[in-house]
């Protein structure tokens, strides 16, 4: 069984105690996340992920009528990943309009060649080559980025098909939030999914984690 590690929203505003929307986690959670990321990188396991990525006028901010404090505003310190060196190389995939396929515009590889367009298969190939592919999103599920589903599908095909792949999901947060949404999004698309519970934080603490465990396992998602 081939593995894909899914790193959900491990950003300063959630993980660090000084973050704008800090979520307390059991001792060792942060170390466990980093250890999984390093092990995946060392063993050639593809890493996909998500980053919460907001504009100043995001609907979910309290001062715009939403439920949350302002957080993960793109370009601010709180938006940054907490583990920027693992994986060693990272490709961010912004929100985009996907009609006839993913068209992720990136800069030059060689001076003078002009900007490049990376399709879903290109991004999947980068993931297999050790580049972390991180999808920007504004709500809970990484699949709300229209580019995510085609890239995941291309990666799965390149690994031999859905029966040959296990997605292992970690990060912030369970309790009915973004880790749950990522796991559900994968399961809904027919993929095998395992949540690495010891490398997640839960909104609502132990009760939030138990709520996620009960709901996700009932949906056929493994809780490890």
Description:
- The chain has 224 residues and is an alpha/beta fold.
- It has one domain (2-223): Isochorismatase-like (Rossmann fold, 3-Layer(aba) Sandwich), CATH 3.40.50.
- It has 6 helices and 9 strands; from the N terminus they run βααββββαβαβαβαβ.
- It has helices spanning 12-15, 29-43, 120-128, 148-158, 178-188, 205-218, and strands at 2-8, 47-52, 89-93, 104-106, 116-118, 131-137, 165-174, 192-202, 222-223.
- Strands 3-6-2-1-7-8-9 form a 7-stranded parallel beta sheet. Strands 4-5 form a two-stranded antiparallel sheet.
- Helix 3 (120-128) crosses helix 4.
- The longest helix has 15 residues, at 29-43.
- It is globular and about 50 Å long.
- The mean pLDDT is 96.
Structure summary:
29% of the residues lie in helices and 24% in strands. The protein has 224 residues and is of the alpha/beta class.
Features:
224 residues; alpha/beta; Rossmann fold; seven-stranded parallel beta sheet; two-stranded antiparallel ribbon; 24% strand; globular
